[in-house]
Amino acid sequence: MTTGEGATLVAPRATGRTPAEPIVVLVGNPNVGKTSVYNQLTGERAHIGNYPGITVEQRSGRLSLPERGGVTVIDLPGTYSLAARSAEEQIALDALLGLAGLPHPEVVVAVVDAGQLSRNLYLTLQLIELGLNVVVALNMLDEVRENPPSPTALATLLGVPVVVTDGRRGVGIGELKRAIERALAEPRRGHLQPEYPPELVADAERVAVALPAAWRDTLERDRALALWALSSIEPDDELAHIPPALRERCEAVRAEAAPRDIDRELIAARYALIDGAFDKLYARVDRHPPKRPSSERVDKLLLHPVWGFAIFLALMVVVFQALFSWSDPAIGLIEDAARLVSGLLTRALPPGILRDLLVQGVVGGVGNVVVFLPQILLLFLMIGLLEDSGYMARVAFLMDRVLRALGLHGRAFVPMLSGFACAVPAVLATRTMERQRDRLLTMLVIPLMTCSARLPVYTLIIATLFPPSQLFGWLPVQGLLMVAM
Amino acid sequence: MTAPEKNLAELQVAEVASVEHVGGERSFRRRLMELGLVPGTRVELKAIAPLGDPLELLVRGSSLSIRRAEAALVRVTPGVKAEAPALSGSPRAALPTASVRGAP
């Protein structure tokens, strides 16, 4: 992919939006429940252009506010930072600031996981530094039983409204809508600023004057953008639409700063601010918010050297057994229906080109494709379940070593599993991987997976060559062979 | 007081250390530091995947998975274990025996 295409690929689709309709953007780290907050806000259940577990595209939906009326909500892909290396990562910044021809958002909702506040506030801090009109949705606070952070203290610290939400149960969504409405009526800028070393501030000022005119705004925002450019631009990045003058200035400033480490100065100053605020946010600071003890015990089992793999294998047997046998009744129904329709047509029409076209072409052709549907749907259901239960993350942890033997990333497991359904969405799903090398390798391996269109062929071969029999009296040999494939 | 420097991959499970320096390519260093591994940060090796790779770290109350080869690029000073009450990441401290303060 060339860098120029990346930016247009994920441009938000206008879903019947009138030009005057304000835009609200949702940002947050990956896996903080942002998607469920989005679904609750827009009342949308369907995942648009989105395969299970992977937000690859920007999605937009509509939210109706009691006074303001219709608002467009854009859901950005999860990210830990606005600093970018690729055009895909750059989209977050472009969408937040309305750069590169994207519409300018009025309100930014930062979805924050209360259990991982430190890492989440890093991103929130960047939003506030850019002077955006931020509303914080403090999510999953109820899961932090011990020593939870204080929402009011967080609001005081950041200088922006904080709403406690629970996206899965829909708690606090009404509050969040009201907070968005208030933020639309009277925009507010947070007041939090990290204390950057004076050398870094001087560097940022030199870069700020090289920013393109269309990017410039207030002094604070220019400085924040300059810091973004300093930490993102490098000779071999894959960023789009960076003016050569800005690129040259960044490289010159970095080169002159040589013995200093600009990235470290920048990141350390932000974390120093977050760390320093913890005594205001928590009743006790010696303990960071703990991980849920129950999930820790489950992890012990799921990641056990023996049981972990046994469970993984058993689950895969169940998944493929299900694909094989549970989809059978549905496949039978579709085949019966196709036969019925073609039988009716054969009787109703006189022999000729039209009958052949309808019976063998339309009914036969469509029937042959639709027959795969039950298996694809079941597979996506399974992947969705595995992903939402958090098991997929464990599998990536478990299998990384194995996949790496093939030169792949642990994350390649999800696309590869999707590859069993169809190689096309699987290749699309590789876009969540960070490095182009990982993406390309996974894309090249996926076509080698047994996709569902090939399954019937294998099924036929297995059914012909191996009689239906049971291993150890209960394991069907045919299903087992499919697992081996 | 402090042991000599090691890299992250050389820690034992449940061992706590302080980050000294993150090495490697620029984009890798930036990413790791943005995830919280800035010099001076307390880090605990929480678990090692069954096949010996990747490693799971506890950084600033969040978990972070990292490959052994990447962890080897992070220089750390192993910390003294008894200096403070263990952070929540160690399984013993997270058991339900720990008192729950404040309303859930």
What does the model show?
The complex is a heterodimer of chains A (485) and B (104). By secondary structure, chain A is an alpha/beta fold. Chain A has 3 domains: 3-185, P-loop containing nucleotide triphosphate hydrolases (Rossmann fold); 198-281; 307-465, no CATH class. In chain A, 54% of the residues lie in helices and 8% in strands. Chain A contains 21 helices and 8 strands. Chain A has helices at 3-9, 34-42, 87-97, 117-129, 151-158, 173-185, 198-208, 219-232, 244-256, 262-276, 278-281, 293-302, 307-348, 353-370, 373-388, 391-405, 413-418, 423-429, 436-445, 455-465, 477-484; strands at 23-28, 59-65, 69-75, 107-113, 134-139, 162-165, 470-471, 475-476. In chain A, the strands form 2 sheets. Chain A has a 6-stranded mixed sheet with strand order 2-3-1-4-5-6, with helices on both faces. In chain A, strands 7-8 form a two-stranded antiparallel ribbon. In chain A, strand 7 (470-471) and strand 8 form a beta hairpin. In chain A, helix 13 crosses helix 21 (477-484). Chain A is elongated, with a radius of gyration of 26 Å. Chain A starts with a helix and ends with a helix. Chain B has 104 residues and is α+β, with helices and mostly antiparallel strands. Chain B has one domain: Ferrous iron transport protein A (FeoA) (SH3 type barrels, Roll). In chain B, 16% of the residues lie in helices and 30% in strands. Chain B contains 3 helices and 6 strands; from the N terminus they run E-E-H-E-E-E-H-E-H. Chain B has helices spanning 26-34, 68-71, 91-94, and strands at 6-7, 16-22, 42-48, 55-59, 62-66, 74-78. A 6-stranded antiparallel sheet of chain B has the order 1-6-2-3-4-5. Chain B is globular and about 30 Å long. The termini of chain B are far apart. Chains A and B meet through helix 4, helix 10, helix 12 and helix 16 of A and helix 1, strand 5 and helix 3 of B.
